[in-house]
Amino acid sequence: MGVMLPFSFTRIAALTTVLLSIFFSGNLQAQVALTDASLFRVSFTLGETMTDNGRAVLSVDDMAKADASLSYVNVNGPARQAELPPYFYLELANGRVAVSALNPSGTATDNNVYAYLPLINETDYALSGLNAAFDFLYRANDEMRGELTLQVKTGTRPWLDVAGSKTRLSDLSSDGPDEWQSFSIQTTIDNIYTRQGDSIEFRWVLDSAPGTPLPLVIQAIEVRAETTVSEPLEPGSLIITEIFAGPDQNGSEYIELYNPTASSVSLTGLSVRSGDNSFVVQRDEEVKPYSYYVLAESGMEPILESTPRYLYYGRILSSGSGFIELYMGGEEAARAAYDISEPFSSVELGRTISGFDGYSSMQDFNSSMSDLGNGMNGSPGYRGNSVRHFSTMLEAGHPYLASIPGLLPESMNRLLYTEAQILNLDGEAVRPGDMLPGQPYLFRSGQTAQQIRLFAEESAAALYSGGPLKTAEGNSAYSFLTLPPVTGLTLSGLINEFSQPVVPAVQVWDPDKERFDVIYSDDVELNSWNAMIINENVPQPLEARTGTASRAPLERMITFSLYEEDGSSEILRDQSYLTFMPGYWTESGRRYDLPKLLPLSADVQSAGDKEISLFYLRNAESNQQGNSFTHLPFEPSQDYRISADLRSTKRSMQTVLRWSLTDEIPDEWEITLTDRFTGQQIDMRGQSSYRYRHAAGDLIVTDEDAEGSSPVSVLQLPPQSDDRFSILISPYESPLGLQEEAEQPGSVELRQNYPNPFNPATNIVYFIPDNRQIKIGVYNVVGQQVATLVDEVMSAGEHTATWNASDMPSGIYIVQLESGNQVFTRKITLIK
After folding, report:
1. What is the DSSP letter of 345?
2. Exposure string (b/e) for 22-44, b if CB count within 10 Å is 16 or more?
């Protein structure tokens, strides 16, 4: 009978050549070198030691010959636990054996170590993790106590317990027959990034010395390595911005890194070197955009408790002067020279842009004036006295609609003068030095340089302190919104003065796809270099904050995707969105429609340069006719008809229109697509696509039909005079469509408040099917009423009541809606 302990184990089908070197120093220490790939198995035999592809078989005789003090005894008989020798083996089939515990050093401090195995990485790759399986035999009717735990160690880091490996030995004991039984422990070991030539050490340890030999033997060990390749970093994507190297020897040192780019930078596999000392970042760590990260000696952990950090063990910095080098993928990524004149103070980079290429000079650092506590000065993990900069990359030949989060120093942006054209929204050429932070501009890079990196530096005018965001006028239907360089910002962070999200969707230019995309989900982080398009009706002022409560998703939505058939494949050309907006968004008749926009390259001078195929939605409720994003009521009280069509510069194309409906759209709604050219009607619930041939080639942009302000500005797509498709939404038996006098069970709804959690205000949304007396109150958890929101006769339909809890403490509150003899409640959470 065997036992399989339930630990995760991922098998990787790969072979390896294993070179086994066995060293004896009082006890067995087997050092296994991986040379080619990621699979090997270690087992034991009474015959000769063998190594070949994927396995190493160790001879018990060779172990004994290497050290006379080792004497392995065959215990295949029914010997009791008290009679077991210190080292023994158990014969298995086919000449194989299982061996007992191996103490790696023989010292008293290691008496609790049951087995030990070091590995050396001699493959052509770095290792990012290991999957290990250990096959044991045990004698079930012998009593065993304590816990057996697998530990792993890399470099100078301490021994760490492997999650999920702990085994309680008493669980193996039973009153079964006096025989040996098997069990296997399988586990995955992450965060052990190991370079070529680095070692990884395993050991099994007991929580207490057993006193007598355990009736436990190892049959085999199987290890599969996960390989990885570290790619070199783009120069300037990491900058060493602060260095602290205290004079004491208890670990007072740290290195601060800054990421000036709009993308996260992975630190996994980063090699940090200083003189003869070095360490490697072995965990999956990253530096967020425009953010700081600290590499610190473990002694600094209490001071850096809330700071993004990676701890290393043992000092690597000289306390006076020295240098630091960062390597990734075998290439140098950053370097800094430092001279610390004040022993208990860090040195900070005065302007991060002085290290724009990753190299920081000694004269660019200044002593920190920030109080770190414990008699030290420093600002690990935040700006301190440094002036930040931000960078992004422009690819040659692509137009960009961008805003700059600071000033553009001429000395750092010389290619902009020679290799790019910059235009404001009026179509006027602008010099880089004259550009204003937070304003949208159109960039057109030339073909000479492959890439142009932009560098913007903070200024007093550009620093963001949480105030209103900047907007620029587009036309009567939309505005441009520019964002500060805030890490992790999503749509939920675009809020009003009551900390309520106010933008359900924005539109941004994607230079790679060469089209405008709609962002409507918090799954996408917003990029401060992108000038975003919002509906002109979005309320002001706007603020940008991270860490705000996630807004409720747009649950009811239909996504339309336009594909062009190209042989056996399909190419996505465009997408548009129809959503059903809850009442808290659309109270007072507010609209959030986003226009269908022509690609930036499609101005009146170059409309024919590239093929354009755009699918738009026309909604009579919208303040514009051709939409990428449009909306209807969450609970339609009548039938609605949306028209749609494709406009393309191509004369003919085989087209597939696909759509997807979210599960939250009520099943009783009937949604029908009609092709007005053919008269064909499609049930959009029973079918998810429609194939047809587009044969118009009618899209020619001219001054007369472009709905924009200037030839080089952002232009709206002019819709067809007669749209080909009609989409009918019929809310069959919708609650608002019922005209019955009697109240229907469940027809009164108290919906989820939004946002939740909130600070300080939240919206309470409710629905009633007819005119009736409604009372809504808010209670604390002990039943005391703290607010009355509604106490009057309300008309049929959806309503929103807002509760401002600015004078209330944080906690859970109960919203209660009373209607006749019905009572509805919801829990809401206030977090300040």
Report:
1. B
2. bebeebbbbebbbebbbbbbbbb
Q: What angle do CA 529, 533, 534 make, to 5 degrees?
A: 130
Q: What is the pLDDT of residue 470?
A: 61
Using CA atoms, how far apart are residues 350 and 362, in angstroms rounded to an integer? 11
Structural contact between residues 328 and 126, judged by C-beta atoms closer than 8 angstroms: no
> Residue 666 has which token pair?
């009520």
The C-alpha atoms of residue 653 and residue 675 are separated, in whole angstroms, by 17
Look up residue 607 and give its amino acid: A
In this chain, the answer to whether the domains covering 239-387 and 749-830 adopt an identical fold is yes
Contacts of 155 (CB under 8 A, 6+ apart): 198, 199, 279, 280, 282
Task: Tell me whether strands 359-360 and 331-339 are parallel, antiparallel or unpaired.
Answer: parallel
Q: What is the 8-class DSSP label of residue 501? A: B
Evaluate whether the domain defined by 749-830 bears CATH number 3.40.50.880: no
Q: What was the pLDDT predicted at 516?
A: 92
Instruction: Decide if 43 contacts 219 (C-beta within 8 A).
Output: yes
Query: Can you tell me the distance from the alpha carbon of 401 to that of 443, in angstroms, rounded to the nearest whole number?
Result: 6
Strands 557-566 and 613-618, by their bridges, are unpaired
Q: Which residue in the block uniquely carries the two structure tokens 């989409």?
A: 727
Whole-number Cα distances in Å, 598 to 345, 354, 615, 654, 711: 55, 39, 11, 21, 12
Q: Which residue has the tokens 């070091």?
A: 118
Stretches where the chain sits below pLDDT 70 are: 1-38, 53, 63-70, 77-82, 101-111, 140-143, 174-178, 209-211, 248-251, 446-449, 460-476, 540-542, 547-551, 601-610, 696-713, 732-747, 821
Q: CA-CA distance, 86 to 647, in Å (whole number)?
A: 84
Beta bridge partners of 832: none
Q: C-alpha dihedral over 205, 210, 216, 222, to 10 degrees?
A: 10
Q: Round to whole Å and give the CA distance between 112 and 134.
A: 18
36's tokens: 């080619």
Residues facing residue 266 across a β-bridge = 286
In 3-state terms, the chain is what percent helix, strand and coil (to 5)? Answer: 5, 45, 50
Q: Name the pTM for this structure.
A: 0.74
- Separation of alpha carbons 702 and 647, rounded Å: 14
Burial pattern 209-219, b for ≥16 Cβ within 10 A else e, equals ebeebbbbbbb
Residue 352: what pLDDT? 94
How distant, in Å, are the alpha carbons of 34, 44, 57, 550 from that of 51?
Answer: 12, 11, 6, 57
CA distance 601 to 613: 13
* pLDDT computed for residue 549 by the predictor: 61
State the Cα–Cα distance between residues 252 and 189, nearest whole angstrom: 30
Domain range annotation of the chain: 2-228, 239-387, 557-581+597-708+717-731, 749-830
Contact between 44 and 96 (Cβ < 8 Å): yes
In CATH, 239-387 is 2.60.40.1260: yes
Q: In whole angstroms, give the CA distance from residue 140 to residue 123.
A: 40
Contact (Cβ atoms closer than 8 angstroms) between residue 739 and residue 713: no
